[in-house]
Amino acid sequence: MDPFQYIPTLTTPKICVVGTNDPYWHLFSWQHYFPELSGYKQMLYIPNKGHGVELLRPILAILALIDHVCCGTQLPEYQWKVDDRQIVVEWASQQDYTVLAAYLWTARSSTMDFRRAKWAISPLPIPENQALAQIAEFELENVSAFVELLFETHEAGKAAKRRLYLSTPVFLFPKDSERSGGIEIPRP
User: Fold this and answer.
1) Is 17 exposed, middle or buried (0-12, 13-18, 19+ CB in 10 A)?
2) Helix or strand or coil: residue 179?
3) What is the spatial distance between Cα 98 and Cα 166, in angstroms, rounded to a whole number?
4) Taking 60 as the threshold, does the pLDDT of residue 1 lie above it?
5) What is the DSSP letter of 9?
6) Rounded CA separation 145/24 (Å)
7) How many angstroms separate the CA atoms of 16 and 27, rounded?
8) Which of 32, 106, 125, 129 has the fewest CB atoms within 10 Å distance of its CB?
9) Which of 19, 25, 30 is nearest to 55 (CA)?
10) Distances (CA, A) of 157 to 69, 138, 160
11) Taking residues 29-53, what's their average pLDDT?
12) 3-class state of residue 65 by DSSP
């Protein structure tokens, strides 16, 4: 039985957590399932981690999902697009969350295999509910990149504010300049 047939029934909110250096889960595998998921869906990449990921980011994501289901807290919404060598992330003012920071994570590899790549972080300015990430071009190396957003709750009446990390999917910027522009790996 193919689990893909159950996708229409998976309407609960989803945050897909992936270690960027996971040896069992290809970095670009999101393209095979993520567009088909229904309901609320976001990505969360854990930089420089393999199959055994760190705990902080996933636990914060689980707490946000619990708050949503049990307390009606609205989960953050944002959109992204890739334009040439730039990732653009936009969001509207959120009812329950504020964007505190945005970060560009990048890794370079001479091949399409990023499992052993070292991911580097750069803070991004966030004027007017938007983050723009320029991706540098390297003649001999492919670049993978994603933008990570750090949210914080701002609900009245809550004693402690909660934080939440979410990401765009990972995009590939190949070393061949004729193919630049955050290409997606084709689906089989």
Assistant:
1) middle
2) helix
3) 12
4) no
5) G
6) 19
7) 12
8) 125
9) 19
10) 18, 49, 9
11) 84
12) helix
What are the backbone dihedrals phi and psi of residue 153, each rounded to the nearest 5 degrees, phi first? -70, 150
**What pLDDT sits at residue 161?**
84
CA atoms within 13 A on the CB side of 136: 11
Global pTM value:
0.87
Backbone angles phi, psi at 110, to 5 degrees: -75, -15
DSSP result, 84-135: TTEEEEE-PPPSSEEEEEEEEEEEEESSS--TTPPPEEEEE--GGGEEEEEP
Of 78-82, 117-121, 152-156, the range with the lowest mean pLDDT is 152-156
Contact between residue 60 and residue 47 where contact means Cβ atoms under 8 Å apart: no
For 66-96, write each residue's pLDDT tens digit: 989 998 889 999 999 998 899 999 999 888 8
- Whole-angstrom CA distances from 115 to 91, 108, 110, 184 are 30, 11, 12, 18
